[in-house]
Amino acid sequence: MDPFKNMQDWKKNMDHFFGEQFWSEFEGILKPPIPQINMYQSDNEITVVCNVPGMKQVKSVDIFVDYATLEIQGVISLPVQGHLVQEEILQGAFDRKIDLPFPVRSDKIDAIYQNGLLTIQLYRLITKESNKHRVSVRVMDE
């Protein structure tokens, strides 16, 4: 028996009572943000690894850096047909803003997509400029 089935039924009843907008305040608690990330820090660098399965074209994801914030926008869509029975791989449109441990340079950023992982390499900013820049992503052949 699925222990979360009763929670889904409970959520449907609450939607009916409070309205669907009620849950927007609890979205981060009920389901984790997407894409899932790991962040690694050294003295002058930050590496962010994002789980973005099934991305066919790198143009379907946008990456922006502004001072000490990384923003990733895009869509995760899995090319599977049929009735969904269980969902653990979250999918859909996402817009995730990530606070970085220190300000980073907007002119020196590397982004590579390989094997379903988007790896973004950022470098420490020495000055206090704040400019939002779009980052281009390269595809690595397997």
TrEMBL record:
InterPro entries with a match to the protein in the record: A-crystallin/Hsp20_dom (IPR002068), HSP20-like_chaperone (IPR008978)
Residues making up the signal peptide according to the UniProt record: none
Record-linked SUPFAM superfamilies: HSP20-like chaperones (SSF49764)
Superkingdom of this protein's organism: Bacteria
Domain SHSP: 25-140
Pfam families: HSP20 (PF00011)
Gene3D superfamilies: 2.60.40.790
Protein family (similarity comment): Belongs to the small heat shock protein (HSP20) family.
Name of the protein this chain belongs to: Hsp20 family protein
Source organism: Salinibacillus xinjiangensis
